[in-house]
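lol ok so funny story. i was supposed to be doing the assay writeup but got distracted and ended up predicting the structure for this chain instead. priorities right. anyway since i did it might as well share w the group, maybe its usefull for someone
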Amino acid sequence: MCSSDLQLLLISGHTIVYFFMKSWALHIGAGNPGLFFTCVNLSTIAVRVLGMGALDKVNPARTTGLAMLFMAGLVPAFSLAGSGTALLFMAAPFGLALGLTMPLLNAAMFRASPVQLRAANANLLMLALDAGFILGPVIGGHMLAAGAPLPLLFAVCGGVMLAGGLCVLRAARHTPALGSGRL
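and the output, tada:
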């Protein structure tokens, strides 16, 4: 599986959360569903800004894989949140994991790609990003139209994240941390 396939899985799962979280938050009685997205985005920004120097020192595929596996367990747990407060406590770790996966998946692709294919592979990642923003909501919308409950969408999203996380971990030996000499 290549980086663009992983990006497609990541973004498809991510957009299921983003497109359908408002409905879930309202369902459980959260007064302001926008607070979930605020917490996610602040966490994403924080991990990127505060971790900027450290992110080059980690194995990007391994870290991406572990973050995706973490999200694979966390996203289905959104359906267990019985209140807006519980959901907010899940938003920050989701944002942290998301903040790690996006830039590190790009770094993994760059490190694993032959020099002559880096531009083409970067373009494929962007194509997968665009496709994921279409595919996730379309699949989720069709599932809801067929009568699936929102918790099932989160479970599917978790399965997508699990598949992506397991696949990207296999690439970890090709993307060692910079300057570490280790895998």
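The radius of gyration is 16 Å. The chain has a mean pLDDT of 88.
back to the writeup now i swear
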